[in-house]
Write a structure and sequence with these properties.
By secondary structure, the chain is an alpha+beta fold. The chain has 4 helices and 7 strands, in the order H-E-E-H-E-E-E-E-E-H-H. The protein is globular and about 50 Å long.
Length: about 170
């Protein structure tokens, strides 16, 4: 199993650090700085989203086999209280890990106060990284496209064009 995540430039940019990771769990931390604040001088919701999303990926990543990758395609975030200073801690766990779908949860705390929770409700898609450009079986490509469309409400025309560019239709 992979022992470390790929480089994560966005996490580096905002100062998000994965501090612990093991069997289906992770802990991430973020020291709040002025750049994280919205106009109301509290942490922007996108920062909390990134903390939960990255924490979930860190919890899931060790369960991936060689050649697999993961992408979040739906995440629900509930905000309970604002945070303006200190260190945010995000604990993430795998709730269920199936063959192609994983469900995860995150809890974001500031000290002992719950700031937010996040649920990846059965839509964190895990797929084997297949080089479809070399795949001669058109049905496998079609099945993968159908799986993307059936599981993701976020698959836009641009997403499908990007997919076609990365995985051209074998002739």
């Amino acid at each position: 199993f992979p022992t470390r995540m790929h480089p994560h430039p966005f996490a580096d940019l905002i100062g998000l650090v994965v501090t612990a990771r093991d069997d289906g769990r992770s802990r991430s931390e973020l020291q709040i700085v002025p750049a994280h604040l919205n106009p109301h001088q509290v942490v922007h919701g996108a920062v909390l989203f990134a903390l939960a999303d990255t924490g979930m990926g860190a919890a899931l990543y060790p369960s991936l086999a060689a050649g697999e990758s993961c992408a979040t395609i739906e995440l629900k975030l509930n905000f309970f209280r604002p945070a303006a200073q200190g260190t945010l801690v995000c604990d993430s766990t795998i709730v269920n890990r199936g063959r192609t779908i994983a469900n995860l949860e995150s809890r974001i705390l500031l000290g002992d106060k719950l700031v937010a929770t996040a649920q990846c409700g059965g839509t964190s898609l895990t797929v084997a990284a297949v080089d479809l450009a070399k795949e001669s079986d058109r049905s496998k490509r079609r099945a993968m496209l159908e799986a993307i469309n059936n599981t993701s409400t976020l698959a836009s025309a641009d997403d499908l064009k990007a997919f076609d560019k990365k995985f051209p239709d074998p002739v």
